[in-house]
Amino acid sequence: MAEGRVAERVKQIFADYKKIEPAEVSTDATFEELGFDSLDGLNIVFELEEAFDITIPDDKAQEMKSVGQIIAEIEALLEAKDSGAEAG
Amino acid sequence: MRKVVITGIGVVSPIGADRDAFWESLAEGRSGIGPITKVETAELRFKNAAEVKGFDASSHFDERQMMMLDPFAHFGVVAAREAIRDAGLNFDEGSGAKTGIVTGSCLGGKETEDAFFYDLYANKKNRVPPIAIPRSMSNSVASHVSMEFGITGATFTTSTACSSANHAIGQAFWLIRQGTLDTAIAGGSEAPLCYGNLKAWEEMRGVAPDTCRPFSRDRPGMILGEGGAMLVLETEENARARGAEIYTEIAGFGMSADAHHLTMPLAAGAARAMRNALEDARLDPEDVGYINAHGTATQANDVMEGNAIESVFGDHTDRIGVSSTKSMHGHALGAAGALEAAATVLGMSRGLLPPTANFTELDPEINLDVIAGEAREARPAAALSNSFAFGGLNAVLAFRRYGG
To answer: Strands B99-104 and B183-190: what pairing?
Structure first.
């Protein structure tokens, strides 16, 4: 997936969840700043796993506190998945 | 005001399929947590739970009963039978009418629904067996016990997630104290280890991959458990008149609602339930020497519960031994309070407080005297057993030592 595409899709998913414009979701925004509580956090991680067909481990999910962290984590997981597919 | 005492205990648990085996494991700090065997775990992110072992339902029920009962009812009915046997009770028309049953369950017959609905959706069957509804209803334990023993007084079921059993025992206690009943069978049972429900718990991201370490700095989360426990409650007057052995007095019950959040607990709500239980029991905080904590070992609960206990007991907190027996029998949701009340009552009557197993090192944010690893000899004048449910519904039982 091209650079920036992941960020764009993540922000769109956040925006859809909060019923706001994607432009309102900045990369450095924390969950708290977006008005997310713990249950919203679980829901958004679920949405992202579905959208990108990945599994975010529980410990990583607990560490993620901002949109930027989520984008980085998803990019890493997608990269691992691609290299795994090539190797396999 | 009528005094209410505990005269019977029955248990089916992951650390013993009867009361004595349960107590032996508690006294030795032996955990029943291990790999899940009831369902395929290849596609589950967690693989461990506390399953009931050494329990063959078909040795307790005939074929017709087996058809009618979900596993959660096996646990509940067998526990009720043991409790009634332990109390040495028989019911005739008169005593049956003054006896009631209050059972707690969060999920009811979820295993039954899971299996029958799988047939509908995956196997494309077009019908479910006629027994589906009566077998999966949450009140089936109360109904079966009432029919089996001829118990005809106030009988019902409470469902308040992880507080279900404490709400059940508390209601039974009040019904006796206010004179509606003379005797009650109260507790809870749960069989949550079916695939659909485990998948749902997976998404809560609070289940530990290995084991349950309440109050420990490195606790990874909760561990699900299954089982059932029932207590026999009766007036002190009746118990003494018939020469029954009395374990402890059940002295108070306190409830509260956080009015805060579906899954994030609030210390003020938990504290209010503990204060209400103390007030209901006419106990001073200084009387309490043991608390069987809710202690799920999630990040959120354990810190919240430590803060709540400190806010209620102040300086006396240091003199209260606290343990979470979920470290051994797992979190049996709607049965949790019943297993923990049984552990508390057995511990008080035997002068031995059950420990917290799997404990590593106290979380620096928690200031409690955690009974770690080994049971502690002590004879506290009073004890609390805490249950705090998702949805912010809290229920706390208070017990007072009986006799010497």
So the answer is: parallel
